[in-house]
């Protein structure tokens, strides 16, 4: 069992940080009645949003039906999920109090069927049981309507000193022989993310590195990236990446920038490096989706393989940010194509990418109506349309 799950507080008073926010949530559910607003919890990952919902529900006698909105983001899937949930709640009768929890509602903005958001708006306005939602961001324009129709509770990063106290308590209770210096280093590097701190502790224990390299510091400046790129062995690159004080996604983006801006790589070398970066990106998404944080130990290895022996140099924005962002997004969309479409044509991903996708895009180049029907059938958005047309213009 993951340490973060094993020590997850079951009572709202046992959480750390965001005291006022937890009190607001308790008051919301305690005073909820038909016609009350849904609640929307926002804030970065690992600060207690989901745990607060479950602990509050437990204390007030509610059972939770949870859905990850990023997995049921379209109107069709949401209708099936939420309608089914309401039908099932009626089976429990008056004695069983139920509530719905929609996690990662910011994931709703990822594809074309934004009617999913409109459906949730209608659902929460007419809900006969409490509805709680959580999002990592609140400034996404596509979520603006949700924020206007919900009671907002904004969670912030947990104070470093509180995390240190919590880690000491966990280490003592679980019999973890970690030094105070190691725990202090974890608490200072997790940037207010309690779950990440616990996962970091468990990963270290799993690797039998209890001392956590306490004789070395975490580095976050440009020289750290220079040191990573100059590594002469896989082990050295992995170790330096582990010392790089950046979020997993920022690590991926940093290495990606270095690869795409390099002028000394052959097409084959660049493709090999980008494949490793793509594997790292996929790994992060799997971790976030399934909460399998032990997989995080493999992230640095993928990135190390991407840069090893490539003589890459740190990029100083030699590629404009808007162009780098475009390249990144185009790559993400292309991966979606290669995930969704090859099976339809009974071919492998490589075959589809090389032989099918270019002609597929060319076919739609001057067939706007057919392209719209295709995008709708796969629930694709303007991003997929833009990339498809971009591929088509190369022919």
The helix tally amounts to 18
**CATH structural architecture of the largest domain:** 3-Layer(aba) Sandwich
Termini separation comes to: 52 Å
The spatial strand order of the largest sheet comes to 2-3-4-1-5
Q: Mind describing the biggest β-sheet?
A: 5 strands, parallel
- Average pLDDT metric: 78
Question: Explain this structure to me?
Answer:
The protein is an alpha/beta fold. It has 4 domains: 18-154, 3-Layer(aba) Sandwich (Rossmann fold), CATH 3.40.50.300; 158-215, Helicase, Ruva Protein, domain 3 (Orthogonal Bundle), CATH 1.10.8; 217-319, no CATH class; 332-392, no CATH class. Helix content is 56%, strand content 7%. It has a 5-stranded parallel beta sheet with strand order 2-3-4-1-5, with helices on both faces. α11 (234-243) packs across α14 (299-307) and α16 crosses α18 (382-392). The longest helix has 24 residues, at 267-290. The radius of gyration is 23 Å and the shape is flat. Residues 87-93 and 207-218 have low confidence and may be disordered.
């Amino acid at each position: 069992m993951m340490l973060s799950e094993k020590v997850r507080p079951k009572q709202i008073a046992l959480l750390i940080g965001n005291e006022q926010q937890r009190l607001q949530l308790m008051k919301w559910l305690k005073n909820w009645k038909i016609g009350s607003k849904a609640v929307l919890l926002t804030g970065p990952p690992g600060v207690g949003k989901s745990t607060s919902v479950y602990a509050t529900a437990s204390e007030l006698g509610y059972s939770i039906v949870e859905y990850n909105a990023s997995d049921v983001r379209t109107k069709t899937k949401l209708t099936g999920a939420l309608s089914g949930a309401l039908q099932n709640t009626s089976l429990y009768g008056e004695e069983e109090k139920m509530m719905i929890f929609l996690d990662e509602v910011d994931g709703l903005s990822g594809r074309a069927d934004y009617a999913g958001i409109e459906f949730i708006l209608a659902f929460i306005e007419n809900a006969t049981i409490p509805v709680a939602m959580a999002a990592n961001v609140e400034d996404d324009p596509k979520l603006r309507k949700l924020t206007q129709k919900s009671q907002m509770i904004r969670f912030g990063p947990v104070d470093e000193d509180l995390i240190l106290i919590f880690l000491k308590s966990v280490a003592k209770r679980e019999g973890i022989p970690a030094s105070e210096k190691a725990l202090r280093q974890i608490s200072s590097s997790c940037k207010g993310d309690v779950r990440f701190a616990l996962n970091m502790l468990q990963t270290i224990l799993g690797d039998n590195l209890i001392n956590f390299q306490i004789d070395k510091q975490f580095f976050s400046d440009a020289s750290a990236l220079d040191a990573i790129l100059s590594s002469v062995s896989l082990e050295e690159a992995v170790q330096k990446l582990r010392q790089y004080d950046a979020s997993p996604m920022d690590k991926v983006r940093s290495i990606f920038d270095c690869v795409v801006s390099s002028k000394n790589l052959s097409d084959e070398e660049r493709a090999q490096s980008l494949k490793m970066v793509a594997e790292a990106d996929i790994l992060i998404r799997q971790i976030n989706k399934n909460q399998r944080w032990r997989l995080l130990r493999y992230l640095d290895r993928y990135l190390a393989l991407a840069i090893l022996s490539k003589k890459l140099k740190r990029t100083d924005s030699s590629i404009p940010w808007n162009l780098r962002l475009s390249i990144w997004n185009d790559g993400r969309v292309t991966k979606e194509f290669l995930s969704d479409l090859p099976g339809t044509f009974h071919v492998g991903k490589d075959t589809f990418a090389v032989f099918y996708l270019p002609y597929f895009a060319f076919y739609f180049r001057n067939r706007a109506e057919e392209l719209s029907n295709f995008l709708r059938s796969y629930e694709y958005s303007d991003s997929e349309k833009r990339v498809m047309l971009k591929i088509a213009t190369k022919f």
